[in-house]
Design goal:
With 386 residues, the chain is an alpha/beta fold. It contains nine helices and twelve strands.
Length: 386
Amino acid sequence: MSERGEAPRSESGSDGAAARGAYLDAASTEPLHPVARTTFLAALDAGYADPRRLHHPGRTARLLLDNARAVVAECLEVRSDEVTFTGSGTEAVHRGLLGLAAADAGRGRRVVLAEVEHAAVRHAAQWWGEPTLVGVDRGARVDRDALAAALAEGPAAAVALQSANHEVGTLQPVDEVELPPGTQLFVDACASMGRVPLPRTWQALAGSAHKWGGPAGVGVLLVRRGARWTSPFPADDRSDHRASGFENVPAALAAAAALQAVVAERDDLGARQHAWIARIRAAAAAIGDVDVVGDPERRLPHLTTFSVLYVNGEQLVTELDRRGFGVASGSACTASTLEPSHVLAAMGALTHGNVRVSLTRSTTDAEVEAFCAVLPEVVAGLRDGS
């Protein structure tokens, strides 16, 4: 990492910024925000103690943790007592969804969720018992009629619906979905927290700090006051009954500082990134035999996915990396196995030759133009076998 908290960039040419590559995989993890680095280092000396203890170092750590919680609450427009820090976004997902289901265990072992949910949500639903998958349209939006039909089949312990898709960026119509009375909704906002305003109609919601430039190993779990939630795991004696284990106070404070910074700049940055992604989508579509997927407008500003016919996704990612551009391929949650994307399959889109491009806060116009110039060359070379 550089001194400014940015990912290193490959020098793949000699003609200045336009010839340089760029890290274009922010959807996997955003480079650490400079304010997160500064805050974390400062908090290491003050926030090391157990915030449950009554001695001075413990009280100091508790004040820092409470401050982090208050900052996150203000950024997300929720109450401070609705915010819990977890050990990861995945833990926040599991605790949020399973906590709702456990509280409503009398409604059965069924969790209703969209086919395009992240693996963390799918695995949690399978662990609980009986996942009911609901289809989506070509843009990855949940089929609301199919959702209503699934819920009409009988009670559900919980419904899970992401705020935005991790892989194609489409924003889900969370606030437009009507659920039967008493049915609780869990929202996976790991891909969107900090980048767009949260939906309003949920009982529990999860985010992940490293997705917005905070440190890895910090998740955010929101549980509405008045929601029915109970821990699905063994109890712990922390002051926050929704958490377990020793809180990483410096990391939580750094995550809060980064969130505050990105929320302050998201309108301007989001507008620039939205335009750049539109440029990349157009460049990809112009190549021919390329399926650019996801909603072109109602989407996360920094992310797009396309699939290139007659090209192997691993080879495409490798060749782009050789040119200095770090992108992702395969499912957003199982890329290490190079399995076809369950998201694209659910959408009825091409699953071969898939590339996900996601911009960081430090991406430049020159880098976007350089990528758009390199992409057709790389695709042509792979199709020709050269």
